[in-house]
Design the sequence.
């Protein structure tokens, strides 16, 4: 089953567009619990409310080899019907990108990966060659520094365009097999709306809700794909760290359910 | 000792600007040897001819947990007087970039790291905060796809500039503590020459020699810093895979020495 089928299945089953970002930070986690146990508890209480999970490699690499083992086991701990996105933001020259794609898809068994476009086509190509996997290209990231380069106006044969718009265009060229999506942050509502209007069917991974301050209602109204089953709205800290007490899992489950229901309320309004 | 002191020491001791890229690919390695043993053999025969080592994370991640252990042990196997550069090309939002910086500098113990600029200032900041470590910003990468975005002409208050030039300018702003360098590929000689002319003292990591086809003599003549001790010219495959036979280590040592001597011959001419 390819990524989009798996995602659509989870979206329908759980009536959810919520992607849970699995970014374990020991300084925010309840004391005395290991990363893998923490993740497993979070997965257990959120798996009826999530359409996808998204571990970010940084939080595992920061814990060394133990962290990488926890990452591997975390991917295996996600129910088989819910896709897992590697938030790895990789990007390297062709020969090397091939090794990264192998690491993420074959070795760790992820269903999708985020990829940085700065190195151009040959950095993306080895990921896209995995046709049943999804490659999400960083288009407009959710952070403040995004504007530094992504907002630059660049010359093109059809007039000037901002860099993130040119990236989105290029991604649609790379998308000949229907397995290339975009990362567009909820913290840039105008940009999100514009890119979505231009690409109504493209899979979007939307970070920036919650701790980063993106507006959920605006995102739901302006960020979803036509069929409402190819867009995942991510939340990490707001769900994972809803409580630092013994009730952390219960609180995370509630936070995920609340976010799911808020999205559905906007959709129904 | 900070990165630049360590690098200058190795450059002088070994009279070398050669950085050995430690990119173990089992399909190219001699049969029956493990990655760590391979790397240790390569390090042993090249440590009199190299000024730096540069493992690329992709090749280790592709081997799973075993690969990451080999990476950790490889860093420890490099003589203490030679700096080790993490070719990780990381780039993520501030909070996450902090975890990557911790992983690379604290956990693995690297002396320097390559960082992708697409996410802007807050993606770079956590790396630069490690003042005794070097952050090499991807400016002009060595691959064919580099031109896709890096060559775009962008509007600036001072007229149009190509994206890689704007990245170089931004990197010089980030360089207030003298620990930000640039990655500029030897496969783009005009760009290399132009960026070097503009920033005569900035540390450069220059990939693209050897298998990728960059011209060594041109690179030496036009790519070095003023003092000739802040520029590392990388070669991976040409050294590592000089032979696939039992003499692989001997052949790699010879290839490293040859490259070092070729560089010095150009400098002396």
Sequence:
């Amino acid at each position: 089953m390819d990524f989009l089928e798996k995602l659509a299945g989870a979206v329908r089953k759980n009536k959810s567009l919520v992607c849970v970002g699995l970014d374990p930070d020991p300084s925010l986690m309840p004391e005395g619990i290991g990363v893998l146990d923490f993740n497993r508890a979070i997965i257990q209480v959120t798996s009826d409310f999530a359409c996808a999970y998204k571990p970010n490699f940084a939080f595992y690499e920061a814990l060394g080899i133990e962290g990488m083992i926890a990452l591997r086991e975390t991917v295996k701990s996600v129910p088989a019907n819910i896709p897992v996105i590697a938030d790895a933001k990789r990007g390297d020259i062709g020969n090397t990108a091939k090794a990264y794609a192998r690491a993420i898809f074959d070795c760790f068994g992820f269903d999708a990966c985020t990829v940085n476009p700065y190195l151009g086509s040959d950095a993306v190509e080895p990921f896209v060659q995995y046709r049943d996997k999804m490659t999400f290209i960083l288009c407009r990231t959710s952070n403040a520094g995004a504007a530094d380069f992504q907002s630059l106006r660049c010359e093109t044969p059809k007039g000037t365009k901002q860099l993130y718009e040119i990236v989105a265009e290029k991604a649609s060229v790379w998308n000949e097999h229907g397995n290339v999506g975009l990362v567009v942050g909820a913290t840039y509502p105008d940009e999100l709306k514009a890119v979505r209007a231009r690409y109504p069917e493209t899979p979007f991974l939307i970070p920036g809700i919650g701790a980063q301050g993106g507006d959920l209602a605006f995102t739901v109204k302006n960020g979803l794909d036509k069929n409402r089953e190819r867009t995942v709205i991510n939340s990490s800290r707001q769900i994972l760290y809803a409580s630092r007490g013994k009730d952390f899992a219960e609180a995370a489950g509630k936070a995920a359910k609340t976010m799911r229901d808020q999205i559905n309320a906007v959709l129904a309004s």
